[in-house]
Amino acid sequence: MVTLSQVQSSNSLISSTLPPHLVAVFVGATSGIGEATLKEFAKRSRRPRAYFVGRSQDAGDRIVAECKALNAEGEYIFVKADVSLIRVVDEVCEEIKAKEKTINILFLSAGLPSMDRRETSEHLHLLTALVFYSRTRFITNLLPLLRRAPALRRVITVGRGGGEGKLYPSDFPAFHVPLSALRGHICTLLTLGLESVAKTAPEVSFVHDYPGSVKTPLLDRVEGIIGVLMRAFVFLVGHWICVPIEESGERHLYLATSARYPSAIVGSDGASGVPLGDGIDVARGVTGDIGSGLYSVGWDGTSASLTVQKLLAGYRDEGMVEKIRRHTESEFDRITQQDQN
């Protein structure tokens, strides 16, 4: 595991070991883990520029002011958008691409407080739309800017890293996947989807992580008896089991900047991230290889278990990475053609 003191030590070196003017895009950053990570990025970087996407203008205005207080030399741009819709994702990406030539960090954490089975207007399962399709669209749209960055090229997607489970190939969107298997299915879908993208961009590193139990505003929006029970449980034992939101922000900034998670192709241009401290090694990727460029990690930065690696290897052998790629592109084609009609 990576201890909190090791995380903090690495983060303290960001301003001295990484170049100024880093550009980051945070999707789902008007509360919770995204907001906490954005503020850590603002605090630790030299003259950064951060775009952050969310639905609340009030929250966006507040966070801009708070980031300015942390680092007045930075620039913080709020983009109001509902990123459950692919056409909106495209609009946001076009707005960013019109202003930027390169991006160093793409941080994706938008989600839902429950296993919502609702359908979007684009006929996607809302939960899967936010956690898989929207994030994949952001990555593919902004990948050229990430690949052109002269230093630090990284994608972080916050989900259930290390919790990959049974995949249902006949129902990738997860409309009918049993509730008990939903998290494992979406986690595997996301990891293998990232693998299909990573193959096309070996100079970019990708991290799919599980943040652990973090008390965020999402918990307050879980409805019904399940929400009541979850909040009661956190109230009673949260002190012992929950990761504090500030620590979660620090740990996620570490995932975004440490050389522990390098791309598959590592040059001498500083793209690997903050140099490793004593006792820290390069992480093992989802293929089982050290420094493979795609990492599925737990809340404390540890790599996915051997069991998960074997599970993913089995799906890889079945050609599932390519099947997911084809399915995803087909859905994007369907949605964009629908918008044109």
TrEMBL record:
Keywords: Oxidoreductase. The keyword Oxidoreductase applies. It comes from the Eukaryota. SUPFAM superfamilies: NAD(P)-binding Rossmann-fold domains. The keyword DNA-binding does not apply. GO terms for molecular function: oxidoreductase activity. Signal peptide: none annotated. InterPro entries: NAD(P)-bd_dom_sf, SDR_fam, Sec_Metab_Biosynth_Oxidored. This is Uncharacterized protein.
